[in-house]
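Run: sequence + tetrahydrodeoxyuridine -> complex structure.
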Amino acid sequence: MIDKKQMEILSAEARKAADMAYIPYSKFRVGAALLCEDGSIATGCNVENRSYGLAICAERNAVVAAVAKGKRRFTALAISTPDSVEPVGPCGACRQVLTEFMSPDSPVRFAGSGPKEVNTTIGELLPWDSLYDLAK
Ligand code: THU
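>> structure
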């Protein structure tokens, strides 16, 4: 179980990662931080392209960075969107990719620049994941 302090550290890492975003087109920074099973943290930011559809989200970049370091199980996720006041949740594609490496009860927190933060789980973000058993 992840405690409040760890979640705060994860959120701070997500916020830092957002500042690395490559966003000449949307000007919308996103940072994501994954807590790996071994206690390490992997981060990602969104990376856009002049062929707009090729933009890659922060969340999937964090997953790819972690897997490339040999980490395959994540126990928590934090997302930061400092260019929106309200919290912004992960897109549908990222929810699907995240469930590959997280159990449904894994905590997810997302926050914008305002005071509100959403605390949920990856299972709530992608309910009725019919292919969950295939990933085992
Ligand atoms: N974006 C993310 O990085 N994660 C999400 O979950 C939603 C959208 C990025 C993609 C694009 O670079 C920018 O935010 C605006 O859509």
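>> summary
Residues 4-135 form a domain with the Cytidine Deaminase; domain 2 fold (CATH 3.40.140.10). The first strand starts at residue 31 and ends at 36.
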